[in-house]
Amino acid sequence: MLNRYPLWKYLLILIVLIVGVIYALPNLYPADPAVQISSTASGSALDQERLDRLTQALRDEGIDIKSSELNGNSALIRLEEAGQQIPARDIIDQRLGDDYTVALNLADATPDWLAALSATPMKLGLDLQGGIHFLLQVDMQAAIQQRLEANASAVRDTLREERIRYRDTTINDRTITFQFANEQERNAAREVISGQFPDFEYSTPDIQSGAALAMTFTEQAVQDLQDYAVNQNLTTIRNRVNELGVSEPLVQRQGPDRIVVELPGVQDTAAAKRIVGSTANLEFRLEARPDTPEREIETFHFRNNENRTADLMRDVIVTGDHVSSASRSFDQNNRPQVNISLDGTGGSMMNRATRSNIGRNMAVVFIEHKTRTYTVMEDGKQVEKRDTYTKRGIISLATIQSALSNRFRITGLDSSAEAADLALLLRSGSLAAPIYFAQERTIGPSLGAQNINQGIMSVVVGLLLVVLFMLARYKAFGIVANVALGLNLVLLVAAMSMLGATLTLPGIAGIVLTLGMAVDANVLIFERIREEIRAKMPVQQAIHAGFERAFTSIVDANITTLLVAVILFSIGTGPVKGFAVTLSLGILTSMFTAIMVSRALINLTIGGRPLKKIWI
After folding, report:
1. Rounded-to-integer distance, Cα 177 and Cα 271, Å
2. Beta 435-443 vs 123-124: how paired, if at all?
3. How far apart are the first and last CA of the chain?
4. Domain count, the chain
5. Residue 176 · residue 155 · CB < 8 Å
6. 571 burial class (0-12, 13-18, 19+ CB within 10 angstroms)?
7. What is the longest distance spanned by two Cα atoms in the chain?
C-alpha cells in the first residue's frame, strides 16, 4: 500500500504528541501573584501566629487571599489578583518594619503530578511576566579606600620583610602616609616601595618629629581603578544572576558608575535583591597577641553575639577575592558550613601565614557594605537621603591546628540558608567596590497582562484566518492541515517549556509568523496532489506523489529560514533572540506536523480505501 506507515512510525508520532501535550499542559496553570516575606539575618523568626495576623490584616483591607504558607523563616501569601500585590506589600511592610524583606513574587501553580514529571510552564520575559528593575550605583570612593587599605597592608608586609621600622600608617583621601623614626629609614623605605608600587606619586611631607613618606594615587591609577571596579562588578553580578537561574536577564553598564539589572519572572525577588545587591566579602585575619602594638589592632564584634569581641590584626591574610570555589555542606554535628577552595596565590598566602602561626587563633571576618535611606525636610520639601556604611563581624574564630593550604572550611554560620548564600556570593566572585540601589522599580505582572492578552489575541486571530483559508481552499484536506496546525502549536509550546526558553512579545510575533509558515508545507503538498490528479494519476498515487515530490522544496525553504533564525540568535540580543528562538522551534515542529502528522492522518482516514475522487 502506497499510503500506509509502518506501525513504528505511528507509535513514534503518538509518543511525540503525548509528550507534547503533557509538557504543554503546565501553561494552563499560570503562576499565582504572591507576596514573599523573608526575615533578615538579624530579624526574628516568622511564625504561624504572625502570618495569620498579617493575612487577616490584608483581608480587612479588602485584599483577596488565595492561600498562605510558611517555610522556615520565610512566608508566601498567594493573592487572587495581580493588581493587589503592591498594596499588600505596602501593608505588610508597614506592620513588619526593617527586620523583614517584603517583595513581590509569582508562585508556581503547576499540579504536583506534572511537577513530578519535571513539567513546567514557559518562562515569560519582563514585558509579559513583570519582574524587577534595579539601577545600582558603584561607590567609587569606597573602591579607592579599599584599594588604599590593601596597598597599605602590602607595604607594611614589605617593610617588615626588609626589616625597616615604621611608626604609624594613616590614610587620608587618596594618600597613604607612613611615619618613620628618621630620614634614613624613610629613604630606605622609599627605595624599596617605589619599585613595587608604581601607581603612586611619592613625596616627603614635613612633620614635627621623625620623617614621613606619602604615597598618593595618580590620576591614571584612579581612572583605571574606577573602570576596573565597574567592569568587575558587572561580571560578578552577571555570575550571581546566572546562579539564581533567571531567564533572559539584562545586566549592563550605564554611564561611568552605574549598572542596570533587569530580572524577569524571578520566583523569589526577595532572594534576588539580597543576592544581587549584597556586597558581602570575607577577610581572614590572625588574632592579635597580647604584646601586639595598639596601632596594629582592630576590635570586632561577633555577628551572632554582639556582646562578644575579639582583637584582630589589621593586616589581612587573604580576602574572598582569592576564592575559586565555595559550596555548602554540613559538619558531623549537622551544622552548616562552607567548603572553601582558594586560587594558587591565595593558597600560598594562606599557607605562608598559617605555618608560622600554629596554635594561634585565626578569624573569618564577614564584611557587608549597606545603605541607610532616610527622609529630611529641605526648603519645605521632603528629600530622600542615602548614607552608606560598612558592617564587619566575626563569623568564626578557630585555632590553627596545622598549616592550611588552598582548601578549608568556614563554620559558625547561623543557618543553612546563610551558608548557601555565602557560598553563592563567594563562588560568583566578590565585588570590587560596594554598590547600593540608586533606583528600584518593580514591574508587576498586571502591566504585562495587557501585553499577554493582546499577544494571545494576535495568535488566535492569525490561527483563525489560516484555518478559514485552509478550509475554503482545500476542503476535507484543509481539516487535516488545521489539525496538524493545532498540534504544531501544542508541540511548539511544549518544546519551549522543556528547553526553558523565555517567551517575550517578539517571541509571540515569532509564533504568529510560525503559524502562517506552518501551512506552507501543506499548501505545497496539496497543490502538488492537485497537479497529479489533473494529470489523470490515480488518487492514492497522487497523494503519495504529492508528499514525496514536495518534500525537497519544503526542506529547502525551511532550512534557509532556519539559518536566518540561527544567525539572529547568535548575533542578536534580548528581543531579537526571543524572536529567533520561537521561529527556530516553530520551523522544526511545523515540518514534523506538516509532513509526518498530516500524512499519518490521511493514511489512517483514506489511505487504504479505493478512491476515485477526493475533496481537495
Report:
1. 42
2. unpaired
3. 21
4. 4
5. yes
6. exposed
7. 116
Q: Where are the alpha helices (DSSP H) in 500-536?
A: 505-534
Distance CA 55, CA 18 (A): 41
The answer to whether 124 touches 448, Cβ cutoff 8 Å, is yes
Helix orientation angle between 598-606 and 7-24, rounded to the nearest 10 degrees:
130
Task: Clarify whether residues 496 and 602 are in a common domain.
Answer: yes
Cell of 15: 509518543
Instruction: Quote the domain boundaries for residue 48.
Output: 32-107
The answer to whether the CB of 87 falls within 8 A of the CB of 104 is no
Indicate whether 290 and 390 sit together in one domain: yes
Residue 475's alpha-carbon distances to 513, 519, 615, in angstroms, are 23, 14, 6
pTM value is 0.58
Query: pLDDT, tens digit, for every residue of 447-473?
Result: 566 777 777 888 888 888 888 988 998
Q: What is the mean pLDDT of residues 9-17?
A: 94
Residue with cell 569581641: 309
- The three cell numbers of residue 557 are 525553504
Enumerate residues 6+ apart whose C-beta is below 8 A from 321: 281, 346, 429, 430
Weakest-pLDDT range from 27-31, 127-131, 506-510: 127-131
Both 494 and 580 in a single domain?
yes
Amino acid at 310: A
Task: Summarize pLDDT for 529-550 with one digit per residue, the tens.
Answer: 888 888 888 888 888 888 888 8
